[in-house]
Amino acid sequence: MVKRPPSALTTRIERFPIRGSFAISRGAKTEAVVVVAELADGGCRGRGECVPYARYGETPDEVAATIERLRAALADGLDREGLQSALPPGAARNALDCAFWDLEAKRSGQPVHVLAGLPAPRPVVTAYTISLAEPEAMAQAARAAAHRPLLKIKLGGQGEHGDAERLAAIRAAVPGVELIVDANEGWSRDNIERNLAACARAGVTLVEQPLPAGDDEFLRRIARPIPVCADESVHDRASLAALAGKYDAINVKLDKTGGLTEALLLVREAERLGLVVMVGCMVATSLSMAPALLIAQTARVADLDGPLLLATDRENGLVYEGSLVHPPERVLWG
Q1: 36, 204, 245, 289 - which has most CB atoms within 10 Å?
Q2: Dihedral sign for Cα atoms in the order 294, 295, 297, 301
Q3: Are 229 and 247 spatial neighbours (Cβ–Cβ below 8 Å)?
């Protein structure tokens, strides 16, 4: 059967206020800015959402323009397979790739997991993020989330108080909760061993991207008392080779891989290499989380709490029961 091209492309930038603010080592923000790509074919509509990230030189306007530049190619028959070479990994390709999957599901009447040859998705437990702040404020936020089984602690602060003090305060506040840490490239050669030791004392089970991606060779030279996970240092399969000897795990984000298509291949190759898989997200709506839930089915850690950090999610969003997130209804995606 010949695949017909979608008849229409719509691209739009949307903004969703964050509940309070969201702070990491690179700064704070009060809203999630996403780009949505929509492919239509008669009565069928496929959607994908991405989050442009300044860390990778992306802006919402530029990502939307990149998607729009493919309008003619889409009309000429560009499909999901061709998209993989038409755009590099990144936010723009993610939005279109996920829109293609959704459209294919709507056209065929088959859910995406069937199209991808995957088992039916089940609910998964997601981490819940504690934003970077002073130790007592972070301890208070952790205490308020003590009913959640897994907390992700943002570290890498350069203020009066150090990360070891933050960790000690948080662990005292939530003695029975599993903790993972994300330094967002905020540590240095001078403090990484001290901070990793503090993580070990606090019973942290995983540390994401402690050093800048451009300076992570130093990880080969130190003992790692707990598993270290690559985030900014890994994007797609091409970036895996450079991780050997430095990382024990990878954080798979669809905005980095350029969509679900590459993410599925990346996970397969990472598992072959013996790397632990984590699936992560940006602060975004349920439309971003829905395809990532397919990756989360086999991941050691799922960090898909983006909608929980928003003041209001989009319509027909994912159902969260505490930290248990359920697969999407087809009206949302897939």
Answers
A1: 289
A2: negative
A3: yes
E strand intervals along 221-271: 228-230, 249-252
- Confirm if 294 and 260 have CB atoms less than 8 A apart: yes
**In a domain? residue 114:** no
Count the neighbouring beta carbons within 10 Å of the beta carbon of residue 259: 30
Report if residue 331 sits inside a domain.
Answer: no
Among 14-28, 48-62, 213-227, 250-264, the minimum mean pLDDT is found in 14-28
- With bands split at pLDDT 50, 70 and 90, how would you rate the model's confidence at 293? very high
For 300, half-sphere exposure in the C-beta direction (CA atoms, 13 angstrom radius) is 18
Q: Tokens 């990756």 sit at which residue?
A: 295
What is the span of the domain harbouring residue 244?
124-325
Residues of the chain by 3-state class (helix, strand, coil), percent to 5:
35, 20, 40
User: Domain total for the chain?
Assistant: 2
> 265: domain CATH number?
3.20.20.120
Three-state DSSP class for residue 130: strand
Residues 153-205: tens digit of each pLDDT: 999 976 557 999 999 999 999 999 999 999 999 999 999 999 999 999 999 99
Query: Residue 201, Cβ neighbours under 10 Å: how many?
Result: 13
> Which of residues 85, 109, 133 is at a domain's end?
109
CA distances from 84 to 35, 218, 261 (A): 19, 33, 8
Q: Read off φ and ψ for residue 285, nearest 5 degrees.
A: -90, 180
Residues known to be catalytic: 154, 253
Q: End-to-end distance of the chain based on CA atoms, in angstroms?
A: 21
Pairing verdict, β 228-230 and 207-208: parallel
Non-local (6+) Cβ contacts of 290 within 8 A are 318, 327, 328, 332, 333, 334
Cβ neighbours of 53 (radius 10 Å):
17
Residue 84 has pLDDT above 70, yes or no: yes
The pLDDT of residue 2: 44
